Amino acid sequence: MKGEQKPRRSRGLVTTIVVLALLGGGAYGYVRTTQRPAAKAKVATAAPVPVTLGTVDQGPFALLLNGLGTVQAYNTVQVRTRVDGEIQQVAFREGQNVRKGDVLVQIDPRPYQATLDQAKAKKDQDTANLNNAKADLVRYTGLGAYASRQQTETQTALVAQLTAQVASDQASIDNATTQLGYATVRAPIDGVTGFRQVDIGNIVTAAGQSPIVTITQVEPIFVVFTAPEDQLPAIGGALRTGDVPVSAWTTDGLTKLADGKLALFNNQVDTATGTIRLKAVFQNQNHALWPGLSVSTKMRVGTVAAATTVPDDAVQHGPDGLFAFVIDESGHAHQRALKAGRSDSGRTQVLAGDLKPGDRVITAGQYKVQDGSLVADPHAAHTAQAETAAPGRSARAEP
Questions:
Q1: How much is the pTM?
Q2: Where exactly are the structural domains of the chain?
Q3: Which residues of 139-178 are buried (b: 16+ CB within 10 A; e: fewer)?
C-alpha cells in the first residue's frame, strides 16, 4: 500500500501546477485586454502645458528713448582763502546745506583791521593839509595884485596834489576794507559742503592749492546722457514743440529717481560712437540725484495715439525672427511672427504682425510649448474661481 501512495501524490502535484498556469495566463490576458484601452485614453487626453497668459492691448503709447547718463552738479566751487592768516573759526559742518553768503571760515582779521585804520588816518591827515592849502589859495586870490602870479599858481598846484592824495587814500581804504572782508570766508553759492580740508589754528595762504571745502549745487542738477545719432531728428522735433520729459532711474531700471526735462543737446555728434550728448535738468528737491551718480534715462519724444502692444515677456526670439504664441478659443498655442518697436512700462509696441487687440499671448512657460500645443493658465483659473466664490461668501455674510 505504501508503494501505491507515491504515484498518486505525483499526479496531484502535476495537476495543481497546470491549474495555476492556466489561471495565471488567463489573468495576464485579462489585464492586457482591459488596460490597453485605458493607456491609449491616457495618451489621447494629455494634460495641457501650464503657462502664464497676457493680452494684446491697443491705446496711447509713449515713444521713449532709453539711455545711460551721469549726474553732474549745476555748479561746483572750491572755496579758497584770498588772504593769509590763521583760522580762528570754522562755522560749517561737513555735508551741510549752505546758502550764498553764509560764513564758512573766519581768518584772524587783526592785521587787516590795522591796515584799514592806518589808511583812514592817512586820509584824515591829507584831508587836513588839503583844507589848509585851499584856505591859502583863497587868501592869495583875494590879495589880487599884491600876490604874485607864481604864488597863486604854486598854491593851485598844491591844492590839486593834495586832492589827488586824498583820493589815493580813499582807494587805500577801499582796498583795506576789501582785504578785511576776505578774512571772513563766505559761501559763494547755495549748495552742499563736502569734506573739510582745514582745522582751527591752521595757517592758510592765498597762494595755497588746497581748498578749504568744496561746495556743490544740487538744486537744480544736471544729467548728461547719450542717444543714437539717428534719433536726432525726433529729439529736435520734440524739443521745438515744447518741453521734452526725461526721467532718471536706477541703473537696473527698477526705481524712478526723479522727473525732469531736456535742456539741450550738444552742437556736434561724436563720430567715434555715433551718438549725441544731451543734458537734462532736474529740480532734485529730495536730493535723490547726486553728482557722479550713474543713472539710466527715459526720454519721451512722442506718443502714438492707438498703438498695439504686448507684454515684453511675450516677445520671443526664433531662428526666423521675433514671434509670440497666441492662444485660440480651444486653448491651443499658435506661433505668430511680429516686428517689435520700442518698449515702455513692461509693454512692447507691435509694428507688424498678425496680432489683434484682445488676443491672449503666452508670457511665461514658452520653453515647454510648441506650435499647436494645448495650454492652460492655472493662475487665471484660480483667479476666476476666487471671483466666482466671492459673491457666494458675500451672500452668506448677509443677515
A1: 0.66
A2: 52-61+306-391, 63-73+215-303, 81-107+184-210, 109-182
A3: ebeeeeeeeeeeeeeebeebbeebeebbeebeebbeebbe
Q: Consecutive sets of 10 residues in the chain, 399 residues long: mean pLDDT of each?
A: 47 51 51 49 64 90 89 94 94 94 96 96 95 86 70 87 95 96 95 93 90 94 93 90 92 92 92 93 94 94 87 89 90 90 84 88 87 82 51 43
Q: Can you identify the CATH homologous superfamily of domain 63-73+215-303?
A: Efflux pump adaptor protein, beta barrel domain (2.40.30.170)
CATH of domain 109-182: 1.10.287
Helices and strands, number each (H, E), in the chain: 5, 20
Task: Taking each helix axis as running N to C, give the angle between helix 110-143 and helix 149-182, from 0 to 180 degrees, rounded to the nearest 10.
Answer: 160
CA angle 265, 269, 271 (to 5 degrees): 160
CA 306 to the chain's CA centroid: 29
